[in-house]
Design brief:
By secondary structure, this protein is of the alpha+beta class. The protein is 45% helix and 19% strand. It has 2 domains: 97 residues, Hyaluronidase domain-like, CATH 1.10.3450.10; 127 residues, Alpha-Beta Complex (Nucleoside Triphosphate Pyrophosphohydrolase), CATH 3.90.79.
């Protein structure tokens, strides 16, 4: 079962949604009663994105609703799958479909040990108060896209067996060119958060994943960084600094 589950999840990650549906259906059929909803929820995820690719809005909507309903009770994690993060992808897809588009971002399916990835909230002191660094990701939606996952702090998935602090330092260096001392804010949950103070004249050098950056207030970061989970880390750091 574990091997087939891994194969099905890998097929989802590679955009092979029809194949993933077939693989995971076999796992669902052989699962015990206590886990059937979990595996069926993953089937619904694969079918939802498959239906989106076929232009079937109604089918996609129904599958997304079923995925959220069946996977929710198993969150935040089950069998190494970060369901809290996957469910954010499902909810983001539901909003996209409700807005009239089937151009969905791929489902976010980090695997392995927690934390699955890291964010680094970089701040600097300015004449306007504290400012936070946010990066705009290149997507197929174009440079004007302002929706879910468009703006984020420096962040990324942790590599296999990589120490979370090392992962955070690597992502910061790769995405911005900055090498700064990091302070752990919360490393116990599925996505670790670190904070770093940058000098006022810090030079940001973007990699190919991003097309621009901005220094903004915590309030503006919360508005730009969607879904709400993304902006939450900046608010948490701002509150921590406010109380220090």
């Amino acid at each position: 079962m574990e091997e087939d589950l891994g194969r099905g999840l890998d097929q989802i990650a590679r955009g092979k949604y029809f194949e993933a549906h077939e693989t995971l259906e076999d796992v669902w059929r052989s699962a015990g009663p206590a886990e059937k909803d979990f595996f069926q929820g993953l089937v619904h995820v694969a079918v939802a994105w498959y239906q989106a690719g076929r232009g079937n809005r109604v089918g996609c909507e129904r599958q997304l609703e079923k995925a959220a309903r069946r996977l929710g009770p198993f969150a935040p994690e089950h069998r190494g799958v970060a369901l809290d993060l996957l469910l954010f992808s499902v909810e983001s897809a539901r909003r996209t479909v409700a807005a009239g588009s089937l151009d969905l971002e791929p489902p976010f399916l980090p695997l392995g040990d927690r934390p699955f990835g890291c964010s680094v909230v970089v701040w600097r002191a300015s004449s306007k108060g504290r400012e936070y660094l946010v990066l705009h990701r290149r997507t197929r939606h174009g440079s004007d896209y302002e929706g879910d996952w468009a703006w984020t702090p420096p962040s990324g998935v942790r590599e296999a067996n990589e120490d979370p602090l090392e992962a955070a330092s690597r992502e910061l260096r790769e995405e911005t060119g900055l090498q700064l001392p990091l302070k752990a804010v919360d490393v116990a949950r599925s996505w670790a958060v670190y904070a770093a103070a940058a000098p006022a004249d810090a030079r940001v050098l973007l990699n190919e994943e991003h097309d621009r950056f901005s220094w903004v207030t915590a309030e503006e970061a919360a508005r730009l960084c969607l879904p709400e989970l993304v902006g939450r880390s900046i608010r948490e750091v701002d509150e921590l600094l406010e109380g220090s």
